[in-house]
């Protein structure tokens, strides 16, 4: 995605929202994720992503996007990248989730607003609201503290 002045802010909003899902996925063995990518076991990857996401988001909000990549060198750290499709109400986000031993990161490839405003700040606020509304809530607070 061509970066715009709002890209960093939107990626930060998405990173905060998706962080518990990334943490769940980082509990999986990197070798298992790599083998599933290498042998194109996308259904299995979709199930793993759905299982991690169902703890924090309503069904169908966070989905595996049928692709990914990995970096694995002799003696070096492994990094797995998974394509995600994130669909809170009114927004569709295509992103790459990078998972490594000690961190995770997200990069938005494309974002589409169902009813985009001419004001980018309103679109960014809609993104934040939609992601918040798509989360499970316990006693008025998000299920996972950041």
UniProtKB/TrEMBL annotation:
Highest taxon listed in the record's lineage: Bacteria
Annotated protein name in UniProt: Uncharacterized protein
């Amino acid at each position: 995605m061509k970066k715009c002045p709002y890209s960093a802010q939107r990626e930060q909003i998405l990173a905060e929202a998706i962080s518990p899902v990334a943490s769940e996925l980082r509990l999986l063995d990197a070798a298992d994720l790599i083998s599933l990518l290498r042998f194109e076991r996308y259904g299995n990857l979709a199930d793993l992503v759905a299982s991690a996401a169902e703890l924090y988001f309503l069904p169908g909000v966070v989905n595996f996007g049928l692709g990914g990549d990995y970096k694995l060198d002799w003696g070096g750290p492994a990094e797995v990248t998974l394509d995600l499709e994130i669909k809170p109400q009114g927004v569709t986000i295509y992103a790459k989730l990078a998972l490594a031993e000690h961190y995770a990161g997200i990069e938005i490839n494309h974002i589409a607003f169902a009813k985009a405003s001419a004001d980018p700040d309103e679109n960014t606020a809609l993104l934040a609201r939609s992601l918040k509304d798509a989360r499970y809530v316990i006693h008025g607070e998000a299920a996972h503290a950041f």
